[in-house]
Amino acid sequence: MNKVRWKYNVNDKLLQVLVVLLFLSSLNNVANGLLSQIGFVSMMSLLLISSFSLLILVGKEKNIEKRLFEIGKAQLLIISILLLGLLMNSNLRAFLTTFQYITVISTFLFFSKHNVLEKVNEKLFFICFMIMLGIHGFYFIGEPNTTTFSSIFENQNTLGIRTFLDGILLILLYFKTFQKRNILLAILFFLLSLASGARSVFIIVGIATTTYFIFNFISKNRLRWNVFLILNFVILILFTYIYPRLDQFDNFHIWNDIVVDLTGQRIFTGRNRIWIVIFEYISASPILGHGTGILLNDISNITLSAHNHYLQILLQNGWFGLMTIFILFLKIWNGLYLKSENKIVKFISCFFIGILYYNLFEVTLFQNNISIGLVKWFIVSIGINMTAQQKVLSIDLSSKRSYEKLKTKKIKKYSILNTSLTG
């Protein structure tokens, strides 16, 4: 097999700085004012540095990997819809929303171009995780009510999803290093997520697990792969429409009692009333929406968030906007298919489907809680990176024995995460 050198596109130190900024950006959601400002500055720095670095890399490269190019085209399509929405709503919020979409997708593309798990020092990840674990542990001991544990964050839902994502990152680190301490830390973060009482995390776990069990079937060929995602798009839309109307079904109270017994909470959490109102406004302008950046409190007396990413997109940019987002998801999904036999890509693909369902109840991918969305995009970018490089050395690292064999041969500067001998 011919040796292929890994091409370093940016200085490794820059990637390490960006990873630190990614961790610090989570402080944007804490109750402390100073820490929140640090988190905001870190998040904005991450978005701007990554986006400008991507522009520089694209300007220098003669050829762009096809998979990333396809995602980039979807980004341009989204931008065109957002600019159209600016004609209907041109306030500061509209421009901020456009900025968020552009920089979040650009940051995702930037990380997708670099094997971050390979280039960033594993000790840096470990230190960041240990600091966060220590902070959460300190608050956990001092907080009397652990049924709604929120640690340093403003609410338990933020803690639940953030610690869950940290656990996912630690599992990915284990795939790279095979160090058992990463699994131990992942378990601790998952326990913190469980302690938060956030039900939305269970959605990711349930959907991702279901996808994992049928993964071999859906990845048999590209047709099944795409049909599966499109089917999930349909389910997302149907659920969004049916959920707020569940109380109209005869057996609703029976199911509600079951959910209360299992989780201690009712099926309805108040989102149903918000969604019904949003649907009324969507029906007034279903194709183009009410304008980029429009929030529910701009056109109604409700000051709460939509708590549904897809409804917020429909409200702002209509069905045109939602379809462009689905096209982006489809491009990413097809990129993952190219290495779907890889265990890590399989893991990330299942996670990707899970976060699509998570956003039925939250707004995190492009708006509102962006610091959480950035971690999700970072995780998905790891999978895309493994498929985006057209010339990489493909090595089977599904076992510790393979890793040790490579280590003894002192093979360096290779993408040790790109598995499958078909490359």
Structure characterization notes:
This protein has 423 residues and is mainly alpha-helical. The chain has 2 domains: 66-390, no CATH class; 393-423, no CATH class. 68% of the residues lie in helices and 0% in strands. It is built from 18 helices and no strands. It has helices spanning 12-24, 33-60, 66-86, 92-112, 116-119, 122-142, 156-177, 180-195, 200-213, 215-218, 222-242, 252-263, 271-284, 296-299, 309-337, 343-358, 370-388, 400-409. Helix 7 packs parallel to helix 17 (370-388). It is globular. Mean pLDDT is 81; it is low at 1-9 and 390-423.
* Uncertain segments: 1-9, 390-423
Mean of all residue-level pLDDT scores: 81
Outline, from the CA principal axes? globular
Number of continuous helical runs: 18
Measured distance between first and last alpha carbons: 11 Å
Approximate helicity band: 55-70%
Counted beta strands: 0
> Which structural category do the helix and sheet elements fall into?
mainly alpha
Report the order of strands and helices: HHHHHHHHHHHHHHHHHH
Beta-strand residue fraction: under 5%
| Count of discrete structural domains | 2
